[in-house]
Amino acid sequence: MVNESETLGGSLEDLYAFCAVIEFGTLSAAARERGETKGSISRRLSRLEQRLGVALLARTPRSVSATEEGTAFYLKARDALTLLADASASARAAQDVPAGHLRLTAPLDLGVGVLPPLLTRFRAQHPQIDIELLLTDTPLDLSAHRIDLALRATPGNLPDMSYRASALVNFRIVLYCSPDYLVGREPPCQPAQLVDHQLLACRDMVGAATLKLNDGRGKETSLTLKPVMRTSDYASGQQLLCNGVGIGPLPDLIARQSLARGELVPVLADWQVATGTLYAITLSGAQAPARVRLFREFLRKELATLQQPT
């Protein structure tokens, strides 16, 4: 197999120098154009000819001109360098202009309630970007699945250092119920009073009857309860709570819209099950394309707005 770097002279700078000599007529003029010395240009030309094994230029003390082989090589080299410049410009444009395909992945809980209105607004603002959303609670390999950005939350494990994690928003997991559930019932004022209520166990509580709460200031309590229903995700848990099944935990980020519509009310608002952070995960290394950076900042601002008190 031919080594292309040797065929092309090993260095693009040598090619550029050769083309400059042809286009400007002398080594001195080419050196001035490229900001190099005449000796540097001469060494580049000699290196190029040596690697190609052919004389490209005929030199005299007063002039330099292309040989027949040099003229033919120049025409092809010029076209190749033009194509390379066009390709570089296209790559830079893709990096700087927010356009193209945006492939996302997120947990089911976020994809059902939180993301759809945000994606709709983002797409309306940037119609030149088309979006693909993969919903799964299994973390995907971003490179293998060609993922531009993944949404992942703690508590939980963030990916290793081969990825870049950008914090988007902090959230609390707290207790909620529907207003209808409280009709004819006394709202609990202390965690111990939860034993008198119906409990919905969500996600990490599945398979356990222990509810741990903390007040965010170091005070903790643990209650042994018997859930009337269990679910493995917050998306279905939110719907069940809205339907009046009982009291259960939800991330405030997910419950926000139901709160605004009056479908849910907080219970023991000063207590929380846990706190967490939602992250935007991208591949590390080179700067992310403009469409990815734009969407990440859009999410950061929109999610911060969702967390503001109404």
Automatic annotation (TrEMBL):
Organism taxonomic ancestry: Bacteria, Pseudomonadati, Pseudomonadota, Gammaproteobacteria, Pseudomonadales
Alphabetical keyword list: DNA-binding, Transcription, Transcription regulation
Native source organism of the sequence: Halopseudomonas oceani
Protein name in UniProt: LysR family transcriptional regulator
Domain HTH lysR-type: 12-67
Protein family per UniProt: Belongs to the LysR transcriptional regulatory family.
Keyword check for Transcription: yes
GO MF annotation: an example: DNA-binding transcription factor activity
Domain of life: Bacteria
